[in-house]
Amino acid sequence: MKYFLYLHLLSHRCDLCIDGYYAESSDPYGRPLCRKCECNENVDPNAIGNCDRNTGHCLKCVYNTGGRYCESCLPGFYGNALALPKGDCKACNCYPVGTEKRDPESDVLVCNYATGQCPCQPNVEGKHCDTCAEGYWNLMSGEGCEPCRCDPVGSLDRTCDITTGQCQCRPGVMGQKCDQCIPLHYGFSPEGCKHCECDQIGSSSLQCDPYGHVLVGLM
């Protein structure tokens, strides 16, 4: 074993390991016993200086890997750094405004190393935290999504436009939250609002009261 290790010494004094090896220990004469650096095949075999000759730490990890032995995916990537074929570490691609920033001192958005799930802001969902949960909107706030608060009577359902917050109104209903009748309509109800049937000549206004009663003009 020592003979094998000595073959990887550099210089005429045999006091330095060749590239790709590091001094694991030394013999009784002070000569280093060199051991091959273990970088889990996550380095370029044609590159020089892939590891530290003294510590064995890998210095030039590729395939988006890192760590002392290139054994894990870099922050911002997920997958199995040891898998074959190489290149399993994939970008998290977390949506910045929808993702919770775990490290305030870093601009890198990390995800679960196994699944790639990004940590979402409140009421935000999706693997990349790029959409609001049902019934919420305003993803671009950067603080999570806020409730639509659609009126349960005037809205078709609890969802709204994720950009504007506009709820889906029933016929004859208006407002961002669908909470009032449009002009010239009355009878706010789960069926929507009905059109006022005011006579253009005999009514003081084409707008009826909330019960549909016509406002009679003065003769």
Automatic annotation (TrEMBL):
CDD domains: EGF_Lam. InterPro entries: Laminin/Netrin_ECM, LE_dom. PROSITE patterns: EGF_LAM_1, EGF_LAM_2. It comes from the Eukaryota. GO terms for biological process: animal organ morphogenesis; cell adhesion; tissue development. Keywords: Basement membrane, Cell adhesion, Coiled coil, Disulfide bond, Extracellular matrix, Glycoprotein, Laminin EGF-like domain, Repeat, Secreted, Signal. Disulfide bonds join C61-C70, C120-C129, C148-C160, C150-C167, C169-C178. Gene3D superfamilies: Laminin. One of its GO terms (cellular component) is basement membrane. Its main location: secreted. It is found in: Secreted, Extracellular space, Extracellular matrix, Basement membrane. This is Laminin subunit gamma-1. It comes from Araneus ventricosus (Orbweaver spider).
